[in-house]
Design brief:
By secondary structure, the chain is an all-alpha fold. The protein has a two-stranded antiparallel ribbon with strand order 1-2. Helix 4 crosses helix 7 and helix 9 runs antiparallel to helix 12. The longest helix has 39 residues. It is globular, with a radius of gyration of 25 Å.
């Protein structure tokens, strides 16, 4: 190898490192280093001020066995994840099928449904706080017009979490909607035409052709939606602050409270790693189960 070629390779390497250096430094400073630090802090009694004291797995033991509020928070989070993911995916599939079966104003409706995705969560939550107001809120007014009694959406433990789920679905299903529309448009028209010739109606065509061929998109959307739903924070923090009676307190909000309200950084770090274990476990389970219902054949 000539010396000129070696010099050129070195220059290319230096140029490549120069291009990736900003992202690499940012990743190390804001992702890798905090992640490692949180793992270390989870084994310490660290109050943000003072000297950390090593306590081993005490934070995890206390979290899992001596903290009844954590079990309530865990249940709230799982309740939110299951309800939100189910409603989000089902609604997105239904609207996607409806939009692909029509041509008039389909692009307009697609844009309308996607707009909430790009609106800041804070703005959406503030609007829904007004909509959920008792007696004068638009939702209660609409329900009252059909004879439904006034609902205390954000102050009744029975309705507080459903209220957050409704807002989250309205705000987030547009993302999966775009994914499913792309998947439906990728289905060959010849398959739909063949099913129609054989006498299959819309319902049978959906279950027999569209949904099986859409399954890879459903799998991707479900995995991503589960991951993001475990991290719910903005909605609960703005609408209810975890109340009433901790009925809407979730893992990320509880972690925030422990770390930045009670200054128990070690305990908050332990909650973060339990959350990571839950998300990782849910993702692995979904990946293992995809072979039973996901089809990649056309």
């Amino acid at each position: 190898m000539s010396s000129l070629s070696v010099i050129q390779r070195r220059r290319n390497t230096v140029a490549a490192l120069a291009f990736i250096a900003p992202n690499l430094i940012g990743f190390i400073a804001f992702v890798a280093a905090p992640t490692v630090a949180s793992l270390v802090f989870s084994f310490f009694d660290y109050a943000l001020v003072g000297t950390p004291r090593f306590i081993g797995f005490e934070n995890y033991r206390r979290l899992l066995f001596d903290d009844p509020l954590f079990l309530r928070v865990l249940w709230n989070t799982l309740y939110y994840v299951v309800a939100y993911v189910s409603l989000n995916v089902v609604l997105a599939i239904g609207v996607a099928v409806w939009l692909t079966n029509r041509t008039a104003f389909a692009g307009l409706f697609r844009s309308i449904f996607f707009v909430p995705v790009i609106i800041p969560t804070v703005a959406v939550a503030l609007i829904f706080r007004l909509l959920y107001l008792p007696e004068i809120g638009l939702i209660n007014v609409a329900l009252g017009s059909v004879g439904v009694p006034d609902i205390r959406w954000l102050s009744d433990p029975t309705f507080a979490m459903p209220a957050i789920i409704i807002m989250s679905v309205w705000m987030g299903f547009g993302y999966n909607l775009v994914i499913f529309i792309a998947g439906l448009k990728g289905i060959p028209d010849s398959l739909i035409e063949a099913a129609t010739i054989d006498g299959a109606g819309n319902w049978r065509t959906f279950w027999g052709i569209k949904l099986p061929l859409l399954s890879p998109y459903v799998f991707f959307a479900t995995v991503m939606t589960v991951i993001f739903s475990f991290q719910v924070f903005d909605q609960t923090y703005i609408l209810t602050r975890g109340g009433p009676i901790n009925s809407t307190n979730t893992l990320v909000l509880y972690m925030y409270q422990q770390g930045f309200e009670f200054f128990r950084m070690g305990y908050a770090s332990a909650i973060a790693w339990v959350l990571f274990a839950l998300v990782f476990g849910a993702t692995i389970i979904q990946s293992r189960m995809q072979g039973r219902w996901v089809s990649y054949d056309i």
